[in-house]
Design goal:
3-stranded antiparallel beta sheet, disordered N terminus, disordered C terminus
Length: about 270
């Protein structure tokens, strides 16, 4: 299978379909193809096939062990058992190295070059960076190479196969996560309730203030209207006090005229008597 051709999901299904009916050496050959094929990084379905599990009990047990390493292990694990396992092609080595980086990324998001060089048994940084770039193009992980600080910063990586004995741990972790989510949700609901109560209080206070302001405006208008009806302008009132009322001058003039007439009449009477 050409290394340049990325195996699609359909091709993977075809390989699994062939593996279901293969036996013995044919099955071993098919397993090597799967381990070498680019784009296939999960092997759980293949491991669960009854005919594949039978390999663990016959002369092909080393192949079954190799498949198990690709599913759960790392390149360092392979090197520690290399004497009891089939040799790897360059494509298989690189794939197992990709999977080893994924395992490290699950524990450390910023992986030092020194750790990668040791775990992957690469000779220099150039080989390491080429391997990481290859993994990025294969959609195994996403991240960036920090050459200045000599580390790989991982943003995303694929998930690997899970051992059956790990399911209980995963279940417990998920239950703890759900419990934590419930606690957080309860706290959020409490905060929302408090916020709604505060909002209602503020709305009630606002309505009360608006009602008091409206009543005060009405009172001021009524008071102003009553004051306008019962009082006069002070300057106008002072002017009226200074100026006599109409007809006052006429009455005073009439009184003076009558008094003068009376005096003249008295004078005449006094002259006659003399």
């Amino acid at each position: 299978m050409a290394a340049e051709v990325k195996v699609t999901g359909q091709s993977q299904e075809q390989l699994l379909s062939l593996a279901r009916s293969a036996r013995g050496a044919a099955l071993v050959s098919l397993i090597h193809q799967v381990l070498e094929a680019p784009g296939i990084y999960v092997f759980g379905e293949l491991l669960d096939l009854p005919n594949v599990r039978e390999l663990a009990e016959n002369e092909f047990s080393s192949v079954f062990r190799l498949l198990t390493l690709f599913a759960y292990g790392t390149y360092a694990d392979y090197l520690s058992e290399a004497g009891n396992l089939p040799p790897l092609s360059e494509a298989q080595k690189n794939k197992l190295r990709h999977l080893s980086v994924v395992t490290l990324a699950a524990k450390i998001k910023c992986i030092p070059y020194a750790v990668l060089l040791e775990q992957l048994q690469l000779k220099n940084v150039r080989q390491l960076e080429d391997l990481v770039i290859e993994a990025v193009y294969a959609d195994v992980l996403r991240g960036s190479l920090d050459q200045r600080n000599q580390r790989l910063e991982v943003d995303y990586s694929i998930g690997r196969d899970i051992r059956r004995e790990e399911l209980s741990t995963i279940t417990r972790t998920l239950q703890e996560w759900c419990l934590g989510c419930e606690v957080v949700l309860s706290g959020i609901e409490e905060q929302v309730s408090r916020a709604n109560q505060h909002k209602e209080q503020q709305l009630g206070l606002k309505q009360q203030i608006e009602s008091e302001v409206a009543n005060l405006k009405k009172t001021i208008k009524v008071t102003a209207a009553a004051a306008a009806a019962t009082s006069q302008d002070p300057e106008q009132h002072l002017t009226e006090l200074r100026e006599p009322a109409p007809g006052t001058n006429q009455r005073q003039t009439s009184k003076k005229a009558s008094k003068a007439k009376g005096l003249r009449g008295s004078a005449k009477i006094w002259s006659k008597s003399n």
